[in-house]
């Protein structure tokens, strides 16, 4: 589970494909789906974006109740590259913004804020995680979905968690993640109690 859950990424300045400048925190007020990609990606980012587009079209959630932000994690990409990517893959929805971060320091601060790391395989190709990040209306990270292709059900789950809504089985799954460390702590405490109890009294 990413260590940044519950934290708020920095309020970086972005520029969209229309040349409009805005800040990340301007998007507060409703859940936000972040999709970090790079426009010159030969495969994964294309699959992710097309899959996201298809899932959004099938999503049974009002479009005005959340926002989607696709942004480039490549510091060498700007408005031209992102605009071409948007046109090529027809990423046009009223609640979907495609943008880049013009300041390199702010870009890497944002990537650190969502715990996103990438490496250069070559000058053009990058090895990177494939994911979506879900933020709540206050800008705090609440959920991650990993993979190349995403379903409407995955988006619904992420948006529910961004709203602070969990199903019984989701809560049970979260609880089960703590069973092992709780059990291990119990063994340690029991062992210490038995050891101290067996110490000779003087």
Give an account of the 3D structure.
It is a single chain. The protein has a 7-stranded mixed sheet with strand order 2-1-5-4-3-8-9, with helices on one face. It has a two-stranded antiparallel sheet with strand order 6-7. It is globular. The N and C termini lie far apart (49 Å). By secondary structure, it is of the alpha+beta class. It has helices at 44-58, 79-89, 104-113, 152-162, 168-176, 179-198, and strands at 13-16, 21-23, 32-37, 67-72, 96-100, 119-120, 126-127, 131-135, 141-146.
Oligomer: single chain
Most strands sheet = 7 strands, mixed
SS elements, strand count: 9
Structural class: alpha+beta
Strand content: 15-25%
The name of the CATH topology of the largest domain is Glutaredoxin
CATH class of the largest domain: Alpha Beta
Within the largest sheet, what's the order of strands?
2-1-5-4-3-8-9
What is the chain-wise order of helices and strands? EEEHEHEHEEEEHHH
Distance between the termini: 49 Å
Low-confidence stretches: none
Query: How many domains would you count in the coordinates?
Result: 2
Number of separate helices = 6
- Spatial shape: globular
Radius of gyration: 21 Å
Helix content, binned percent = 25-40%
- The CATH architecture of the largest domain can be given as 3-Layer(aba) Sandwich
The average pLDDT score comes to: 89
Instruction: Determine the CATH superfamily of the largest domain.
Output: Glutaredoxin
């Amino acid at each position: 589970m990413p260590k940044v859950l519950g934290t708020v990424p920095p309020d970086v300045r972005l520029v969209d494909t229309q040349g409009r400048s805005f800040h990340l925190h301007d998007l507060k007020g409703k859940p936000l789906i972040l999709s970090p990609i790079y426009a010159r990606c030969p495969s994964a980012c294309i699959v992710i974006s097309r899959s996201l587009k298809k899932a959004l079209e099938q999503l049974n959630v009002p479009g005005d109740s959340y926002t989607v932000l696709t942004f480039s994690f490549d510091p060498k990409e700007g408005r031209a590259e992102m605009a071409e990517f948007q046109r090529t893959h027809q990423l046009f929805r009223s609640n979907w913004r495609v943008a880049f971060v013009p300041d390199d320091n702010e870009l890497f601060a944002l990537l650190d804020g969502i715990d996103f790391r990438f490496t250069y395989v070559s000058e053009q190709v990058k090895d990177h995680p494939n994911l979506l990040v879900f933020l709540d209306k206050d800008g705090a990270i609440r959920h991650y979905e990993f993979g190349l292709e995403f379903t409407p059900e995955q988006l619904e789950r992420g948006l529910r968690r961004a709203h602070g809504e969990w199903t019984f089985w989701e809560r049970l799954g979260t609880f089960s993640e703590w069973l092992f460390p709780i059990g291990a702590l119990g063994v340690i405490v029991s062992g210490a109690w038995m050891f101290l109890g067996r110490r000779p009294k003087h």
